[in-house]
């Protein structure tokens, strides 16, 4: 169950990378006249979701840092 908490962050980061490649092509075709911000769209949503779900990774890194400092 603890490993399941680590799944969202890399998943959303991967989705952001995959969406970035697709979104640039779609924006050129569909919205060539519109000047959209890079902070809009699916890429930014996936990056924000990745950051919001980073808590378990940060706790894991903190625990490992404390364990290595004790040695």
Strand percent estimate: under 5%
List the secondary-structure elements in sequence, H or E.
HHH
Number of DSSP-assigned strands: 0
Q: Total domains, how many?
A: 1
The number of helical runs is 3
Round the mean pLDDT to the nearest integer and report it. 80
Termini separation = 28 Å
For the sheet with most strands, the description reads: none
Q: Measured on Cα atoms, how large is the radius of gyration?
A: 17 Å
What's the helical proportion of residues?
A: over 70%
Walk me through the structure.
It is elongated and about 45 Å long. By secondary structure, it is mostly helical. The chain has three helices and no strands. It has one domain (3-70). 70% of the residues lie in helices and 0% in strands. The mean pLDDT is 80. It has helices at residues 8-30, 42-52, 55-70. The two termini are 28 Å apart.
Give structural attributes.
3 helices, single chain, mainly alpha, 71 residues
Topology diagram in text:
Blueprint: H1 8-30, H2 42-52, H3 55-70
Short synopsis of the structure:
The protein is mainly α. The protein has helices spanning 8-30, 42-52, 55-70.
